[in-house]
Amino acid sequence: MAVLVIADHDGSAVRDTTNKTVTAALALSSDVDVLVVGENAQAAADAAAKIAGVRKVLLAESAGLGKALAEAVEATVLPLAAGYDAILAPATTDGKNYAPRIAAKLDVAPISDIVEVVSPDTFVRPIYAGNALETIQSSDAKKVITVRPTAFDAAANDGSASVETVAGADAPKTAFVSEEMVKSDRPELGAAKIVVSGGRALGSAEEFHAVMDPLADKLGAAVGASRAAVDAGYAPNDYQVGQTGKVVAPQLYIAIGISGAIQHLAGMKDSKTIVAINKDPDAPIFQVADYGLVADYKTAVPELMAALG
Amino acid sequence: MKVLVPVKRVIDYNVKARVKADQSGVDLANVKMSMNPFDEIAVEEAVRLKEGKEHHAAGTADEIVVVSIGVTQAQETIRTALAMGADRGVLIQSDTDLEPLAVAKLLKAVVDEEKPDLVLMGKQSIDGDNNAVGQMLAALLDWPQATFAGKLEIADGKATVTREVDGGLQTVAAQLPAVVTVDLRLNTPRYASLPNIMKAKKKEIAVKAVADYGVDTADRLKVLKVTEPPKRSAGVKVESAAQLVETLKSAGVL
């Protein structure tokens, strides 16, 4: 049995979501190949070749693949599918976009967002916003799976696989128009060791950044936000931690002015240590926090900054 | 332009799902059910396309057909969409919960019959959390897809969609017909007014059976068990930010 992992990368390097998906793939089979789809992505393919346990790396390039258009990824993967028993992708917005499309073309049931590999045909995945876990067994001969990266350790980068080129398809009916990516020197939200998240209590976009940014910089943390803060326009959409946003599991998660709605908890409750700062002693966030401080963020955050030195 | 909006009846988003003691699933007996919140956003956008609200030109959509696959009570979900402004409904009755692949195949059969120019639907249902049907439907139809829409514009035979993706926003233009799946920030759905609720009672809902469509809807996945996630318990309260930092340092977290 061989497994194909579709890499998540930025053109020059692979993201650690790829290493984590390789770890999940290795639980299915020892024959794991990585497919890098992109445009001018040779450097990313070379980086993928260093992931421990990878047999070989396939590089497919086209303009549409450069923008990870689902139609292009699907058409690139389909001709390769015959050689694999399972196709895995990280459950990023890209992976979620193209994986079900590939599954439908192969007439198999996609298995979304797995957090555990029980056996090569049995997986655990969260349902109902993480309020339940289902263990499912697939009867499909070929499996298409997305992997929740935070649930797996990253494979090391001490391998040396070969890289070969395969044909890259395009997306004739879909055109890339533009993108607006948030630029930041901070670690990525999904991969950060420390995440500081702000809620609606912060009151405005100016206040959100004035409070959260210096704290994040001091801790070397990524900044997250609750859905309420994002909906109110205090923080950009890709800051959102929760059921419908990003799922994070850092070493330390600091929630500031976040009440702890079910949908937010679904996105952060697997963090190693949770700290909550909220002036409402009855806020549900305290029920999952390892350390709680009942205080107004306006006084608590400056004090926290001072105590951190 | 004709718009098809698939909607699903799911556990209300305010209700916490409880796992059954025998681990066979989630207990839905006597639980409040509602339209999947993402589907509500899709219905709202379709109605705005018809009304010419926001940036949409009036009459961008001229007919909105709502389809649901589920139990008899899913008619109520369709009725809600009709009260919001959709024109007619189709219920494909099924007493068993179908997997995304089967749902996508049934929806393809409905698309073949209805021939819409646009399928507008929620990005995921809040019960199965698969986030798969829209993409699969697009694949089965060989249509382009634009998922996680935060903004939609229809012009010149194209759907220009700003997608909410990791790291920011991506805008793509998909040739119609296309499947667009919607994200939370596309719009805020309206509450249906009483007169519109009354009017919706007179709108047509065609009731069909899964067998009418002649597609393979067999399960591919077997649910072995459904369990509760490991619980986190409340920890300790600290008195000050200084004590917090001290505690985190001594616990080795900082």
UniProtKB/TrEMBL annotation, chain A:
CDD domains hit by this protein: ETF_alpha
Assigned keywords, A-Z: Electron transport, FAD, Flavoprotein, Transport
Domain of life: Bacteria
Keyword Electron transport included in the entry's annotation: yes
SMART domains in the cross-refs: ETF (SM00893)
Name of the protein in question: Electron transfer flavoprotein subunit alpha/FixB family protein
Lineage: Bacteria, Pseudomonadati, Pseudomonadota, Alphaproteobacteria, Caulobacterales
Family: Belongs to the ETF alpha-subunit/FixB family.
Domain Electron transfer flavoprotein alpha/beta-subunit N-terminal: residue ranges: 3-180
UniProt organism field: Brevundimonas albigilva
Keyword Cell inner membrane part of the UniProt annotation: no
InterPro entries in the record: DHS-like_NAD/FAD-binding_dom (IPR029035), ETF_a/b_N (IPR014730), ETF_a/FixB (IPR001308), ETF_alpha_N (IPR033947), ETF_asu_C (IPR014731), ETF_asu_C_CS (IPR018206), Rossmann-like_a/b/a_fold (IPR014729)
TrEMBL record, chain B:
Protein name: Electron transfer flavoprotein subunit beta
Origin organism lineage: Bacteria, Pseudomonadati, Pseudomonadota, Alphaproteobacteria, Caulobacterales
The entry's keywords: Electron transport, Transport
Coiled-coil region: none
Family (UniProt): Belongs to the ETF beta-subunit/FixA family.
InterPro entries: ET-Flavoprotein_bsu_CS (IPR000049), ETF_a/b_N (IPR014730), ETF_b (IPR012255), ETF_beta_N (IPR033948), Rossmann-like_a/b/a_fold (IPR014729)
Pfam families, A to Z: ETF (PF01012)
Domain Electron transfer flavoprotein alpha/beta-subunit N-terminal intervals: 23-217
Signal sequence bounds: none
